[in-house]
Amino acid sequence: MRKYSRVNNIFAGMIAALVGLTTFAQKNPNAGYQPPFFADKERAAKVKALAPVIQSMYSNYAKANHFPSFSFGVVVDGELIVSGSEGYSDIANQTKANTRTMYRIASMSKSVTAMAIIKLRDEGKLKLDDPVANYIPELKNQALTKDAAPITIRELLTHSTGLPEDNPWGDRQLADTDEELIELFKKQMSFSNVNGTTYEYSNVGFATLGLIIKK
Q: C-alpha angle 151/155/157, rounded to 5°?
């Protein structure tokens, strides 16, 4: 039986930045104002020097939480400068994890989806308050009530479309195609709230964002 740990790539980046700032402050207590870490031209080298510390933090965290394995990477200025792994991706066969081990990252992919939407917004290819039906006509006039405002991309991003919480759906539909998602829209979606009024976690909502990005 294959057993996989949770992976948190953001964790490494945050640690690298925080430890870098702390180290600088400790070595330069009277230096006065200095540019922030993200503007430091030597930041990549500073983070790279912290590789043993980052590896140790991941190792300690994995042991404390009983993770069978982990893999991580820290990217600075578009370059992978620190990476590491530990443990077994397949315990039964004693297969060691490495930096190319594949993990099921689940909802971590939502951050990537949101980033892609914001990038499209920045490029002028969409607006956050655009009706979703502008990109997916099958969702036109779908809402809890007939007088509800059109569902927007912003509401998809903020889990406020009125779609019901659907974690079981997300786990069962991982292999669904775009065509199957559109067929689901055509059957008329079920809503638990008027859009824009409350938060309710929606995997369908983020699958819809993925389809918008593709279009």
A: 135
CA-based torsion, 108, 109, 113, 118: positive or negative: positive
Spatial distance between the Cα atoms of 129 and 138, rounded to a whole number of angstroms: 18
Q: Is the dihedral of CA 81, 86, 90, 94 positive or negative?
A: positive
Structure tokens belonging to residue 59: 């190792």
* Residue carrying the six token digits 């990252």: 105
In the numeric block, the tokens 């030597």 are attached to 42
> Helices in the chain by DSSP H: which ranges?
9-27, 43-49, 51-64, 109-122, 153-157, 167-172, 178-186, 203-214
The distance between the two most distant Cα atoms of the chain, rounded to a whole number of Å, is 66
Q: In what order do the strands lie in the sheet with 95-96?
A: 69-76, 79-90, 95-96
Tokens of 111: 């951050």
pLDDT digits (tens, 9 = 90+) for 158-181: 999 999 999 877 777 778 899 999
Q: Please, are residues 15 and 79 in contact by the beta-carbon 8 Å criterion?
A: no
Choose among 134, 12, 30: nearest CA to 82: 12
pLDDT for 116-133, tens place per residue?
999 999 999 999 999 999
Angstrom distance (rounded) from CA 97 to CA 90: 8
pTM: 0.66
For 44, residues 6+ apart whose C-beta sits below 8 A from its C-beta are 76, 77, 79, 81
